[in-house]
Amino acid sequence: MTTFHGRTAPLKRFFDTAKVDKRLPAMERIVDIENNGNYKIYSFSSVAKKGVINDTFKTSKVVLFYNSGAISILDKNDISKSKNIGSVTVLMLFWMECI
Q1: For FRET with 42, which of 12, 23, 66, 68 sits at 20 to 30 Å CA-CA?
Q2: What is the mean predicted confidence (pLDDT) over 57-68?
Q3: Could you give the CA distance from residue 66 to residue 90 in angstroms, rounded to a whole number?
Q4: pTM, entire model
């Protein structure tokens, strides 16, 4: 039987460390939003630190909300001992021009 506990920790030797992108820590959770083929990433830690982020992405207004309390189901075999990883909700408003 395969277990998934501990999967919130980096896997050793899974990636070539010479090619690792150093902009974010290993295993940083991210929110990836897309608008007409364009992408923007927000790290969970930055949203958690601020609580709410109001931003503009291309022509859209974006609001990200952090909420503490989501527990990782992959951290421990006993979920009651797993760590709080929180969650992020995204609200994205699009404007359309009518002719």
Answers
A1: 12
A2: 93
A3: 9
A4: 0.72
Quote the distance between the C-alpha of residue 68 and its chain's center.
13
Joined together, the tokens standing for residue 11 give 């896997």
Residue 38, beta-bridge partner list: 35
b/e code 25-60 from CB counts within 10 Å (16+ = b): eeeebebebeeeeeeeebbbebbbeeeebeeeeeeb
Q: How far apart are CA 4 and CA 79, in angstroms?
A: 11
* Sequence-separated (6 or more) residues with CB below 8 Å from residue 77: 3, 5
Measure the CA–CA gap between 64 and 42, rounded to whole angstroms. Answer: 9
